[in-house]
Amino acid sequence: MGVSIAAEKAEAERLKAVFAEAGALPLDCPVLQPAETLLDLYGEDIRARAYVTQDPSRGEVMLRPDFTVPVVQMHMSDGAEPARYTYAGEVFRRQEQHPERRSEYFQVGYEVFDRGDPALLDAEVFARFAQVLAPWGLRAVTGDMGILAAAVAGLQISERRRAALMRHIWRPRRFRALLDRYSGKTPVPPSRAALLADPQALDRAGVSVGLRSEAEVAARIAALRADAAEGPLCRSQVDLIDTVLSVRETCTYALEHLHDIAVDLPGLVPAVERFERRCAALAEAGIDVAQLDFEASFGRTSMEYYDGFVFGFLADRRPDLPPVATGGRYDALCRHLGGGREIPAVGGVIRPGLLLELTA
Questions:
Q1: 300 marked among binding-site residues
Q2: Is 107 annotated as ligand-binding?
Q3: Domain spans of the chain?
Q4: Is 87 one of the annotated binding-site residues?
Q5: What's the CATH fold of domain 1-117+343-360?
Q6: Domain Class II Histidinyl-tRNA synthetase (HisRS)-like catalytic core: where (predicted)?
Q7: Residue 305 marked in a binding site
Q8: Is the pTM of this model over 0.70?
Q9: How many whole angstroms separate alpha carbon 355 and alpha carbon 360?
Q10: Is 278 annotated as ligand-binding?
Q11: Which residues pair with 86 in a beta bridge?
Q12: pLDDT in tens, the chain (360 residues)
């Protein structure tokens, strides 16, 4: 028998009270969120993960898939600085890839908006979650989206290709497909090769059908031709990205490994130095970084707002379960939603229902 909603809600409120006792301000957010904001952030892909409906007065809306976006909007609208928030409530996510998982469940969160030292704040949030979750014996994993972003930024490629890779950092299969295409590992499809070779391709297309205008089609063909003219990405550059993505060790050894990689990819140095400062801050907060796992690819399938430090707490004895808690830094999201204002932010969420499953 599964965990009851009443029990899950009670555990959510208990965890929320723990964060409130640590100084976080309790708040809540509407269940119905404007679809426009989420679509603008994540594109049409969000429809595969969220429940979308029509409201007579508000237009297209989504059942709340996450708390972080509305919390950021609330803070950027009228929040004080610095601020720490906590919340508890239901979120709704479609589970087409994992039909055995629940599509409606509770989340409890802790979010910090602060202009202080990012390494110290990352460590504060992680240590807070580690303390709260200590009774369950979970395995903590950390990562850093900023390291992969820095590696891509350091590639010797056109800005068009760099932007495409950056856009798909959170979509591993699409990211890999682009790397394979840019390096020439994947051949150009015959239909595209014929299109690029035909200077009159647009004229031969005849009457326009579909949603794209003739100007948009012409721009797309021009972009494909410019990309083809650039030539293949050097294999050594692809190898550097693969080496970064393969880093999967404890923080201490991962730091050494990344310093070695940075010798051949100097653009990585600032991101590795940020990682080093975070490791020092975590150690100061009482975390044994020599035993703390680091995976350079961790967090790439989460919601796309994490752009720096990421972490998760996993129940290794129940590999069928998703992460019990996840979190990270999302400075870029605050810039995007700030309307000209911005503030660094880091936080995370716990799924109380999973904790109850582990103790059942």
A1: yes
A2: yes
A3: 1-117+343-360, 158-233
A4: no
A5: BirA Bifunctional Protein; domain 2 (3.30.930)
A6: 10-205, 227-348
A7: yes
A8: yes
A9: 9
A10: no
A11: 26, 110
A12: 578 899 999 999 999 999 999 999 999 999 998 888 877 777 777 777 788 888 888 888 888 888 988 999 899 888 778 999 999 999 998 876 666 778 889 999 999 999 999 999 999 999 999 999 999 999 999 999 999 999 999 988 889 999 999 988 888 999 999 999 888 888 766 666 665 565 655 555 554 545 556 666 666 666 666 666 677 888 899 999 999 999 999 999 999 999 999 999 999 999 999 999 999 999 999 999 999 999 999 988 765 688 999 999 999 999 989 999 999 999 988 988 887 788 999 999 999 999 999 997
